[in-house]
Amino acid sequence: MSDLNPCMTCGACCAYFRVSFYWAEANDGGGLVPAQLTEPLTPFLRCMMGTNSKHPRCGSLEGEIGHRVSCAIYPNRPSPCREFAMSGENDEENEACNRARARYGLPPLYKDMLFHTSLEAATSVLTAVQSAPN
Fold first, then answer.
1. What domain range is 16 assigned to?
2. Is 35 strand, coil or helix?
């Protein structure tokens, strides 16, 4: 089993949801998010560039979904990114995480899986669950 957190190989949430937040989280409003990587939604809301489209993908996401990914602004990411929990983290399932993962053909993460489950281990668990006799 790998000690790699599944979020480090996933990135599905960064390419599934619109990431919107209060405008003052951007650095031109006193926050940390680089304003040049955002776009306005309303007078009070912004979103991460690339996430307000039919096929969203955050402009700060680097790498290939389902493989090794990273966030170019991780220490300065907006509140929705900071608050979004990986499914299985703290023994809680996050259906939104698993929906995003499913969109990219990635297996769901379960609350009873170890936090540091490798993709191979998660896939074998999913296969076992799906092929269990009814």
1. 6-130
2. helix
Confidence of residue 90 (pLDDT cuts 50, 70, 90): confident
| Number of structural domains found in the chain | 1
Has residue 1 been placed in a domain? Answer: no
Cα separation, 18 vs 76, whole angstroms: 17
Q: Are 74 and 21 in contact (CB under 8 A)?
A: no
Contact 48/38 with Cβ under 8 angstroms? yes
**DSSP-assigned states of every residue in 69-114:** EEETTGGG--HHHHH-PPTTGGG---HHHHHHHHHTTPPP--TTS-
34 domain residue, yes or no: yes
Phi/psi zone of residue 62: left (φ > 0), alpha (ψ -120 to 50 degrees), beta? Answer: beta
pTM: 0.77
